[in-house]
Amino acid sequence: SGLTAAQLRNISTTDFAEFSPAQIGAFASTQLGALSATNFSSIDATGIAGLTTTQIKGVTATQLAGLVVADIAEFAATQIGVLVTNQLRALGATNFSALDGTQIAALSTTQIIGISIAQLSGLTETDIGEFAGTQIAALSPSQLGALSPTNFSALDGAAIAALTVTQLRGITTTQLAGISQTALGEITATQIPLLATTQLRALSATSIALLDATQIGGITATQVAALSVTNIEGLAATQIAVFADTQMAALSATQVGALSATTFSALDGTQVAALTTTQFGGVSASQLAGLSATDIGELQDTQVAVLDETQLLGLGSTNFSALDAVQVAALSTTQMTAFSTTQLNGLSTTDFAEFGGTQIAALLSTQIAGLSTTVIGELTTTVIQALATTQIPSFTTTQIDYLSTTNISAMIPDQIASFTTDQVDSMDPDQLLAYILAG
Fold first, then answer.
1. Where do the H-state alpha helices sit in 243-291?
2. pTM of the predicted model, to two decimals?
3. Under 8 Å between Cβ of 65 and 91
4. Contact 297/324 with Cβ under 8 angstroms?
């Protein structure tokens, strides 16, 4: 122990090998710090174990940088626990990753703060699993962001629950894009609103689908408005069912249209009624086709009034016939021209009776000519009287056969005058008599 720092600094590897663990244990911290990196790394397990925490504090960064993985295992947890930042960083990424669970557990929050980005980047999933929640909570946003997506997903519930607002904002979009189902489930409903919109958008459709009702409830209206089409496509029926009015109101027309048909049909009456006409403009034909008759009954007449041709055709026959009188009354003359003959032929006598005169008069000649003989035979006199004179010639001679004498008799002279010669020639004697008398 009488050796000077200069003597110890210049001692050869061969000479140093002759020192016993007891002799090394008697070195002052300044003497220990004077050893070359090579000589320091040659100290065996017994020698390392004999070093006091005071001596450990004297170990230089250069000496620690010269250690190999096998050397790291020789340090006790109490010895690791007294390393200061420059010593800890000197271990490098490989040696730091070699620390075992007991050694990791000995790191204080102060030491955690001093870990370099490179060291954190070099950790394995197993390494991350050895960190306690309080240690993870001590990481800075940049340190947390240095974890690979796999390592971030390895954080347990306690660690994720301990993340502060600042740390949450440090989570990268790459980490969130690769988050595991387990890690995602550990993000609390109170943490969800703290995520930036870019972070939430980074979640895949699969990840979005895994959010539970409580987490969904934590998404703010601002966050909802920022969700990507991919995010929206991931929403399940059970998730949209718990959307609050404020969340529904935040959806854009494009987002509404991105909901799957199954998810869209899960909206309840209140949610559907809350959709503005602008939002409803984004509803797709497939979404409308997936609605039940009950769902159709929940549509507001103002919503029905903004449906375009593609959307109207998407209703199909069953849903078209499910429209009530108020909804039918909201249809414009332009919308009337969009319906297919299949849809029109699916209507009952009562359904047809709900159309106003201007709506009937708006039907195209192709729509009139496409009406089934069953529909023709069941038309009420009110509907017949609403037909424009330009529509009468559209009836085929086959349709004329099913036109009742009552309906012919109800026609006004201008309508009677619009029948073609072929149509009149196809009438039976009773129809012809009604035609003559009406004219």
1. 245-250, 253-258, 261-265, 269-274, 277-280, 285-289
2. 0.70
3. yes
4. yes
